[in-house]
Amino acid sequence: MTPIIIGKSVRGESHIRRNTECQDSFLIIDGIHKHDRSIPFYDEMPDDVKIIAVADGHGSESCPYSRTGAKTAVNVFCDIMAEYAAKYRDNRDELFKSLNREGETTRIAKWIVGEWGKRILQHHKMEKREVLFKENGDADADAIYKQYGSTLLGMMITQGFSFSFQLGDGDITYVDKNEVAPVIEGDKILGTETHSISKKSSWKKTLTRVISFENGVNTPFMFVLSTDGWLNSHSSIDEFNKTCRSYFEVIQEKGLKTVENNLEGWLSETSTMGCGDDITTVFAYFPDK
Q: How are beta strands 50-56 and 152-157 bridged, if at all?
């Protein structure tokens, strides 16, 4: 089963009023969407592998560069998963087993967080931004990371299964004709705070799940990856689930192109009528076999 993937980021109504940029970022690697990742692993990974990443920069006063943090997060996830897929390109069963092992997913989480931090420090130095120091005179890397804080959602899809990754808020949702359900039950924090990739220990807060497509998954079906601005623009989880189902039904009735052509306007309207935050939504739709 091969999905068709579309997505869009929109600047929230509150960001427009304050004249601030969109803090969200997303990246789709599927052979249709062009990417500028000049990394050999993208050429070496199997053609049926699709990778999606969605990130939400925190956007607070203490995180002035979170848009860069979000963009770096989606690039890191896609780069690492492309390398991983290339490594196991001739052994799909071993890839499936690896992603079901806690030790391996912990290694991936550490890899993602560590690589993100490495790239952020390089970017900060390249931009010649202020370097803060600890009392002992050492550079305060943690203080730099915080300025780029972001969440991260990711998914790798193959012919036989999907691997989902979550650090912080946002939603990965499964939808078919019978149900709308979270792929990962997010680790909710009270208030508006969320786990952040900017913390060195954030790998401990990552959540992952592998779903096999050979164990009774209905077709057609779809996955939806969305930043918390989409959920928070609904009055309840039930209303959010109704919206996910409505999109699924529109795709079935009018086609993905209709959704793709109208998605920016629909998401902007949702933000205006809802919480006013930036919204990013990516759909991976699996048609009938």
A: antiparallel
Q: Sheet containing 24-29: which strands, arranged edge to edge?
A: 24-29, 50-56, 152-157, 161-167, 207-212
* Cα angle: 98, vertex 158, 112; to 5 degrees: 55
* CATH code linked to domain 4-286: 3.60.40.10
Peptide bond into 3 cis (omega under 30): no
Measured CA to CA, the distance from residue 72 to residue 256 in angstroms comes to: 28
pTM of this prediction?
Answer: 0.93
For residue 121, the tally of other CB atoms under 10 A from its CB is 16
In the numeric block, the tokens 């931004």 are attached to 129
Digits of tens for pLDDT over the chain (289 positions)?
Answer: 789 999 999 998 887 888 888 899 999 998 666 566 667 777 888 888 999 999 999 988 889 999 999 999 999 999 999 999 999 988 989 999 999 999 999 999 999 999 999 999 999 999 989 888 787 877 789 999 999 999 999 999 998 899 999 999 999 999 999 999 999 986 654 445 689 999 989 999 999 999 998 765 778 999 999 999 999 999 999 999 999 999 999 999 999 999 999 999 999 999 999 998 999 999 999 997 6
The structure tokens listed for 198 are 């900017």
